[in-house]
């Protein structure tokens, strides 16, 4: 059945369509046109001048609604994904931090099942570890952190196609071989929890590391050793133009002024906004999966306050923060939640923008950038 949203400001790859109408049927967008239509039909939604933007794609998210993907059960996956869907995330890559081999295998099985469902918002699995630098562990579970083990990652990558992203610290022994192998299997390999310098980053990029996990967090910046200064990971990433980054744009993990700097240097085409959201996001803030973590100042922290340990943000909050605090134009902020992650993950042919023939993943936001409606594959979501 054909459905319409009219009287809307619609963001397309070619810019804004003012006072426009978007139609969709059978989960796909069928038209985007200027002008409104009659409101008498029950299949017409009056946007009343609101913004219509593509659904967000979250590449890095640990949980929500009181559940963490590390629970490795189907209920946790479904509830967390649905929680973020209500906040505009119409495509999600469940993230496991450093985990046991058994937990990773269980997550693979669950992800495979859920991805097979036609209406699923789950696009694939993201492993943030366990191949991380223990010196930059942050909120990761330390007992699971280790160097890349070829027998582990080859087994997993040969067993399934559901692993779409895998993070590692490139300075670890075996990381370059890991990146080459994972990239050869179509996995997006990202740099994370690292002390890598510029030379290491160059080698890593050539080996297959193309993306940087939660930029500015769990990595080094310019520093001194005795009387001399040395570049850190951050400066090295800036110098590699082709390398993309992600920002936890809650205004806490990275200050708004720094987010503006990243945007100025990398541009929207090389930046993804991610929530890095934890179990307590979008629900009961007392439900913290990791007993080492507390909620304070609007963010997750280790209880000893030695490091941040994830966010309680949702995608709509990221957009508001980028626009209202970092002073980034709305269209640019939206590109960083939709188009750029879709391109990076190879799903731009069906997601990441509003265009005829693409999935009808649609978000409606009012002037205050509060969500007023979400459609996933053309089905309206109960907020």
Account of the protein in words:
The strands form 5 sheets. Strands 1, 2, 3, 4, 5, 20, 21 and 22 form an 8-stranded mixed beta sheet that branches. This protein has an 8-stranded parallel beta sheet with strand order 6-9-10-11-12-13-16-17. The chain is built from 10 helices and 22 strands. The chain is globular and about 70 Å long. Helix content is 26%, strand content 28%. The chain is α/β, with parallel strands linked by helices and 383 residues long. Strand 20 (362-365) and strand 21 (371-376) form a beta hairpin. Helix 3 runs parallel beside helix 4 (175-184). The protein has 2 domains: 3-52 and 366-380, Roll (Urease, subunit C, domain 1), CATH 2.30.40.10; 56-350, TIM Barrel, CATH 3.20.20.140. The longest helix has 15 residues, at 101-115.
Which band does the percent of strand residues land in? 25-35%
Q: What CATH first level of the largest domain would be assigned?
A: Alpha Beta
Based on Cα principal axes, name the global outline: globular
CATH homologous superfamily assignment of the largest domain: Metal-dependent hydrolases
- Give the helix tally: 10
The CATH topology of the largest domain: TIM Barrel
CATH architecture of the largest domain: Alpha-Beta Barrel
Short summary:
This protein is an alpha/beta fold and 383 residues long.
